[in-house]
Amino acid sequence: MILGDLDILRLIRGGDLIVEPFDPVIVRENGLDLRLGRGYCRFKPTGRVFDPRSPGDPSDYYECGEADEIVVPPKEHMLLHTLEYIRLPPDLAGLVNLRSTWARTGIYIPATVVDAGFEGQLTIEVIGSSFPVKLYPGDRFLHLVLVKLQTPTTRPYQGEYKGQKGVRLPKHFIIHGIGGTP
Fold first, then answer.
1. How far apart are CA 105 and CA 83, in angstroms?
2. Residue 180 within any structural domain of the chain
3. Cα(53)–Cα(51) distance, rounded to whole angstroms?
4. What is residue 9's three-state secondary structure?
5. Going by C-beta distance under 8 Å and a sequence separation of 6 or more, which residues neighbour residue 142?
6. Active-site hit among 20, 66, 119, 125
7. Is residue 148 part of a domain?
8. Number of domains in the chain
9. What is the DSSP track for 82-117?
10. Cα 118 to Cα 132: distance, rounded to the nearest angstrom
11. pLDDT digits (tens, 9 = 90+) for 37-67
12. Residue 63 is assigned to a structural domain of this protein
């Protein structure tokens, strides 16, 4: 079952669903419009082979930083993050979509699921349009549809990305003790 605005507000008021910072304007008919954070990582063109068992230095593959304006160049891949830190209870999962306003600019994001029990800021891959698109932190960017599980999961999310803030690089770097963001 997809939750509507009244269900979402009830869960937030009751403390079962955490959204920080919270602004009532992000509660929509059937989900939350999450805003863009300031952090980004650009995928760097390289001839280096990425080996998940020996990933090397993240700066060989990514250029990361923070900005008040983020330009997504044509056809480039970037990692961005949400302003909001969320915590889902064990009976809710989330489906992430790009807001249609941004999809109409040609920007694309792959299908993304937020597991029940996840908490943190979301890191999202963004693929550029046919032309550069400027994004502003704080703008509503993603739509998170909340789906109620028939029964709460007995194994809420406990992975490497739990509690993440800012852009988090692939877990391969974390597992090998290199760090999450260059």
1. 21
2. no
3. 5
4. helix
5. 33, 34, 82, 96, 97, 98, 99, 109, 122, 124
6. 125
7. yes
8. 1
9. EEEEEE--TTEEEEEEE-HHHHTTT-B---EEEPTT
10. 32
11. 999 999 999 999 999 998 889 999 999 999 9
12. yes
The closest alpha carbon to 73, from 112, 45, 109, 42, belongs to 42
CATH number at residue 133: 2.70.40.10
Instruction: Tell me the pLDDT band of 173, cut-offs 50, 70 and 90.
Output: confident
Mark whether 125 is an active-site residue: yes
pLDDT for 114-129, tens place per residue?
A: 999 999 999 999 999 9
In a domain, 181, yes or no: no
Strands 140-148 vs 92-98: parallel, antiparallel or unpaired: antiparallel
Across the chain, the runs of DSSP E, i.e. the strands, are 18-20, 27-28, 31-43, 62-66, 70-72, 77-87, 92-98, 112-114, 119-127, 133-135, 140-148
DSSP β-ladder status, 18-20 and 77-87:
antiparallel
58's tokens: 């993240």
How far is the first Cα of the chain from the last one, in angstroms, to the nearest whole number? Answer: 39
Three-state DSSP class for 119? strand
Give me the domain span that covers residue 130.
5-175
d(CA 110, CA 32): 18
Q: Which two tokens stand for residue 44?
A: 């760097």
Two structure tokens written together for 98: 């790009």
